[in-house]
Amino acid sequence: MKQSFKMIFSLCLIALISAVILAKVYMITQPAIIANEKKATENAIYKVVNTATSYKESKSGQTDIFKCYDENNKFCGLAFVAEGVGYQDLIKVMVGVSTDFNKILAIEVIENSETPGLGNKIVTPWFENQFQNLSLQNKITVVKVAPSKDSEIQAITGATISSQAVVDIINNKIEELKGYK
Predict the structure, then answer these.
(1) Which domain holds residue 138?
(2) 2-28: pLDDT as tens digits
(3) Which of 136, 138, 151 is nearest to 103 (CA)?
(4) Number of domains into which the chain is organized
(5) Cβ neighbours, 10 Å, residue 173
(6) What gap in Å lies between CA 66 and CA 58, rounded to an integer?
(7) Averaged over 50-69, what is the pLDDT?
(8) What does pLDDT average to over the chain?
(9) Distance of CA 139 to the CA centre of its chain
(10) Among 7, 54, 134, 153, which residue is least crowded by beta carbons within 10 Å?
(11) Three-class SS of 95-117
(12) Selected residue with higher pLDDT from 179 and 118
C-alpha cells in the first residue's frame, strides 16, 4: 500500500512539474507565435491583392475583411479568409476579390492537412493560379478536363474532393459576403 502511494505521488509530482514547464513555454512563445501568424496573414493579403500596399481590417459577421489600398491610398480590392472542411481536415484560404466583387484576383491556401502528394497539391501554383481573375458572375465549378468557362477550374487528378472542397469553401464565403461592399 505504501509503495503504491509513493508511485502515485511521484506520478502526480511529475505531471505537475510538466504542466508548469509547458505553461511557461507557452507564455514565453505566445508573442512570437502571434507575430508570425500576423506576418503570414499580411503576406497572404499582399499576395492575393498584389497591388495593395496597405490594408484596413473590418468585420462582416464572423469574417475578418481586409480592405486593401494601393500606393496612392486608392481602394484596390478586398481580402478575406474562407475556411471549411476538406478531405482530411480544415482548409483555410485567403481570397482576394476585385473592388466590385465581380472577380477573384487570387487565392492562397494558408492552412491545410490534406493528403501529402495528392490533396496537398491545392497549395501548388498550378492549382492556385487557376483562380486568378476568375469570374464571380456564376458560382465557381470544378471540372475534370480543361475549363471551358470563365467560372471553372480544373480538379487535381486524384484529389477531386480536395479541389471541390476549396471551391465550395470559396463559393460559400463569397455568397455570405455578397452584400458586403
Answers:
(1) 47-177
(2) 788 889 999 999 999 999 999 999 999
(3) 136
(4) 1
(5) 18
(6) 6
(7) 90
(8) 91
(9) 19
(10) 7
(11) EEECCCCCEEEEEEEEECCCCCC
(12) 118
- Which neighbouring-strand residues pair with 78? 67, 97
Q: Is the pLDDT at 39 greater than 90, yes or no?
A: yes
d(CA 41, CA 83): 14
Question: 80-115 pLDDT, tens per residue?
Answer: 999 999 888 899 999 999 999 899 999 999 988 888
Angle at 135 between CA 78 and CA 61, to 5 degrees: 40
Number of Cβ within 10 Å of residue 143's Cβ equals: 13
- Quick check: 111 and 134 in contact, CB under 8 A? no
- The answer to whether position 114 is within a domain reads yes
Residue for grid cell 486608392:
74
In a domain, 26, yes or no: no
Q: In this structure, what C-alpha cell is assigned to residue 143? A: 471540372
Beta bridge partners of 82: 93
Whether 41 is in a domain gets the answer no
- Rounded Cα distance between 66 and 144, Å, is 33
Which contacts (CB < 8 Å, 24+ apart) does range 27-32 have? none
